[in-house]
Amino acid sequence: TEVLIEEALSEEFGQFLDLGVGSGCLLVTLLAEKPAAYGVGSDISPSCIRVAGINIERFGLKDRCKLVTSDWFSEINCNFDLIISNPPYISKDEYETLQPEIRYFEPKIALTLEDDGLESYRKIASEVSKYLNHNGRLIIEIGFGKYHQVKRIFERTDLSLENEIPDLCGITRALVFRKV
User: Fold this and answer.
1) pTM: predicted TM-score of the whole model, two decimal places
2) pLDDT tens digits for range 16-30
3) CA 133, CA 178: separation in Å to the nearest integer?
4) For the chain, which domains are there?
């Protein structure tokens, strides 16, 4: 997640969307680091929206953002300079092998859609272009071992791959796309 923040902050942006906001970590951090930015956080989970709301309140950011209960883009009705997302990317099979402290601490919907671990990317790729401004960026975290598959999914969009961001071990963990 740190690599997403670092990449997002590398360029100016006005309005941004945290797609799959979860607890609001990305949303809160970007708002705190970019005082002129306005953020929208969306999530399908009402409990995630509640937790994100508490965190936004705690940091005094409620006037600079909006939270929306939305199945990906279903309730989104504006465009953004930046869309950032750490979507569920763990396959159903991988989920069963996760350490108990991860399986029982994190909400299941935040980790897996109980599919092949790629459905989130397919859904995002199918609509993201409609919600990005010209020259807007999508920064998306990818699961371990999913680089080639995710890259192929986004090749079918009108976005161009601009950057591949490695983690501390040198493994690509985020992709940056631009709408041109």
Assistant:
1) 0.89
2) 999 999 889 999 999
3) 10
4) 2-179 (3.40.50.150)
